[in-house]
Every structure is written in C-alpha cells, then in structure tokens.
C-alpha cells in the first residue's frame, strides 16, 4: 500500500521555490539599480567634464580677444591729430586709402556692406569716424582673398569693403587713424585688426550710425 505524501513536505518545497524566485527577483532589481546609477553617474560626469571644457574654451577665447585688443598689430601705421571737418568738396588725403581727416557730411553705409565698385573717399572716411573698419583691395589681390574678406565683412556690422584701384598694396585694412597691409585673407592680423578696431578705442564717434547714409 503506497504511503501518503507529507503535506508539510510539499508546503516546504513551495516555500523554497517562492523564496528562490524572490531572491532572483531581488538580484535582478539590484543589478538594474546598479546599471541605472552607473549610467546616471556617467552622464553627470560627462556634463561636468563637458561643462568644464566649454567654460575653459570660453575663457581662452576671452583671453585671446583681450590680447588682440591690447597687443599692437604688427606692421600697423598710425596717424594722430586728424581733422574732422565736414566739407562738400573733394579732399586731398596724404595716405591712400585715407584713414581720417575732413570728410563728407554723409557717411558711407558700413553695416556689413560690400561694394564691388570704388566708393568716394570722403564718405568712407566718415564711416571710419563712426568706428568702421574699411577693407580695400586692388586688381593684384586674388579672387579667393577678395571673396573671403567679403564674407568676413558681410558678417560684421561696422565694416565695409570696396576696391581702391590705385592703392599700392593688394590688401589693406583701415580704421580711423590706423592702417595695415596684410598678405592674405588668412593673415592673423585680419582678425586682430577687426577685433581691435571695429568700434574700437580709436573711434571719434562710437555708436554713431552705420546705416542710413550713402548706399553706393
């Protein structure tokens, strides 16, 4: 005659299976939490490192701009005591392109304006008085340099560009009382000249308009 199964034994077996299932579930939950925490730590660490990199990069850029503003531009020529009278007649300037002196009462538009034809010196000088940088070139300048400088001017308020066929050098940058000849559009002095003199300390009338004048 077969013996009856022990009900206590069956119950113990079920409890053991249930405990094992619960143990495995707790283990899975623990692994999941570890993965989640590890991922979160990695993201935070990445943000901290990335944020630190961006802050350092911004600091370096600020330092570079400050250095550009305070350091002399190599090869730069300067003129002091320039007159500022408004005149309706042509002016015989002692430098070409001119960097200051008497000028027309109306400025040349210099709100990132690129002119493909020569413009009147007297109007351009008025733009310099307002804090503009004037980029000029002759027929010896390469098409690539003219294009690249035109793109820079086209993105820079308080700047203008035009050909000056009779200037001595292919590429010249001028501000009020300041001028430099550059070798190419990639010459480091281009960026420095713009940083230093667009609405720079040499400006006789900072903040004056660069639009609403002569449009060329």
From TrEMBL:
Protein name as it appears in the record: DUF3105 domain-containing protein
Comp. bias intervals (Low complexity): 1-13
Chain spans, region Disordered: 1-31
Entries under Pfam families matching the protein: DUF3105 (PF11303)
Regions that span the bilayer: 34-55
Biased composition, class Basic and acidic residues, residue ranges: 16-28
Record has Membrane as a keyword: yes
Keywords: Membrane, Transmembrane, Transmembrane helix
Keyword Transmembrane helix: yes
InterPro entries: DUF3105
């Amino acid at each position: 005659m077969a013996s009856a199964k022990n009900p206590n034994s069956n119950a113990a077996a079920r409890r053991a299976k249930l405990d094992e299932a619960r143990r495995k579930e707790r283990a899975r939950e623990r692994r999941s939490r570890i993965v989640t925490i590890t991922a979160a730590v990695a993201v935070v660490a990445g943000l901290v490192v990335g944020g630190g990199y961006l802050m350092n990069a911004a600091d370096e850029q600020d330092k570079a701009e400050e250095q550009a503003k305070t350091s002399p531009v190599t090869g730069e020529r300067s003129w002091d005591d320039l007159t500022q009278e408004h005149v309706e007649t042509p002016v015989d300037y002692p430098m070409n392109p001119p960097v200051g002196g008497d000028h027309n009462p109306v400025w040349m538009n210099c709100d990132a304006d690129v002119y493909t034809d020569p413009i009147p010196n007297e109007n351009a000088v008025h733009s310099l008085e307002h804090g503009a940088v004037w980029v000029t070139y002759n027929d010896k300048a390469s098409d690539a340099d003219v294009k690249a400088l035109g793109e820079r001017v086209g993105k820079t308020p308080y700047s203008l560009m035009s050909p000056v066929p009779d200037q001595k050098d292919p590429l010249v940058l001028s501000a009020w009382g300041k001028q430099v000849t550059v070798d190419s559009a990639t010459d480091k002095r281009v960026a420095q000249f713009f940083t230093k003199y667009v609405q720079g300390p040499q400006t006789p009338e900072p903040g004056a308009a660069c639009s609403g004048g002569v449009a060329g």
